[in-house]
Specification:
With about 220 residues, the chain is an alpha/beta fold. The protein is about 35% helix and about 25% strand. The structure holds adenosine-5'-triphosphate (ATP) and magnesium ion.
Length: about 220
Amino acid sequence: MLEVQAINKSYKKKMVLKNVSLSIAKGEIVGLVGENGAGKSTLLQILATLMQPDAGEIYWDELSYRQHYQMIKQKVGFVPQDLAIWEHFSVEDNMRYFEQLSWKRMGIEACKKICEAMQLTHWKEPVSSLSGGMKRKLNLAISLIHQPELLLLDEPTVGIDMRSKQEIGRFLQQLASTQGTTIIYTSHDMNEIEQFTDRVLLIGRDRYYEELLSTKGIQVNCL
Ligand SMILES: Nc1ncnc2c1ncn2[C@@H]1O[C@H](COP(=O)(O)OP(=O)(O)OP(=O)(O)O)[C@@H](O)[C@H]1O
Ligand SMILES: [Mg+2]
């Protein structure tokens, strides 16, 4: 279970996250929405241990982020919005490379299975020849090598076609239900959010989003 208690975060004098609290149960898929600049990426980076809040506490399964920083780091998977893959390597060589770097080794066959489960079947092809959707899937597959308990995805489906979106969404649902992975992801596509998340967190009081989500009958909490 993820528990965030009253965190604040400012960049110089600009306060981006103000008194943000939330809790998310194991195996839940939560959508994080809000307008550009609302602070979604900032919150995900804090939850991914890449940045520290100025105030407040965060717990994963009652372990404090402050006190068990290294242990928490190993339990978290983060998919940044920008692709972090080797363009000139094949899919297989990318997976081999990151599997060798990973603190938890799963073996190359298990890596291949993850890719297949997402319909990323171009195992031997160089990444540079893949479509944007396939590259996104590889970015996601790499984040799963150490089998994270908490998976944070920053716009994992931006700029990709409906079919790849569906494949990624279904894959995430399966991951949550079979492995109990807790997933938070951001997207500006409310249809996708409606289809694949259990509930939605909205950063900032934003009437436009609140109305849009309520017309879709989506449960939303404002942070
Ligand atoms: N490293 C930084 N230094 C200074 N300001 C920053 C930094 N990172 C983000 N900001 C500012 O903080 C605010 C929140 O940024 P953030 O990237 O978290 O928003 P976001 O909700 O992810 O936006 P988007 O939908 O555009 O991705 C923005 O005003 C941004 O300009
Ligand atoms: Mg962002």
